[in-house]
Design goal:
- By secondary structure, the chain is mostly helical.
- It has one domain (2-161): Orthogonal Bundle (Helix Hairpins).
- The chain has 2 helices and no strands.
- The longest helix is centred in the C-terminal third of the chain and has 81 residues, at 81-161.
- The chain is rod-shaped and about 120 Å long.
């Protein structure tokens, strides 16, 4: 009987130790997960803004390309020298604006890719923390089951002596 009591006491002490250590670590993990979630939310908002800006620039590029095509068509059918120079000037201006829009789009695309990569890293960290949290919870559960088994054996021994 004494032997069973000592084993039960040892199991209780182990459980208390596991619970104490794991409670602190679980709190830290929850804090980290919460902070990562906030960062991910901010990045998702930025990604949405960047995608919106990219769409606007795409529309502008499409309009410029259409204008360039119309000016080019007029340029080919121009009859006077004055009209030719005017259309040529317009054509060069439009091509220059198209180049600027293209660079702007490339910058937005690069920013988008960086944000997505950063978001993926943060989500990966969050997933690892959640896995660690699950492992700690399983460890706690195992310690509780061990104690319950010990207490069951103690109850059986007590019933034998009663």
């Amino acid at each position: 009987m004494q032997k069973e009591l000592k084993k039960t006491k040892k199991a209780i002490e182990e459980l208390m130790e596991v619970l104490g250590e794991s409670e602190e670590r679980l709190g830290d993990i929850d804090d980290l997960i919460h902070k990562l979630h906030e960062k991910v939310s901010k990045i998702e908002e930025e990604v949405t803004e960047v995608v919106s800006a990219m769409r606007k620039v795409e529309k502008k590029i499409h309009k410029k390309v259409n204008k360039i095509a119309r000016v080019k068509k007029k340029l080919l059918s121009a009859t006077t020298d004055r009209k030719l120079k005017s259309l040529d000037r317009d054509y060069r201006r439009l091509v220059k604006e198209l180049g600027r829009l293209d660079r702007e789009y490339d910058a937005l695309k690069e920013r988008y890719e960086k944000l997505v990569a950063k978001e993926e890293k943060l989500l990966e960290k969050q997933m690892l923390l959640e896995e660690e949290e699950a492992a700690i919870s399983e460890l706690r559960s195992d310690a509780v089951e061990k104690l319950l088994g010990r207490m069951g054996k103690l109850g059986t021994k007590m019933a034998q002596y009663a």
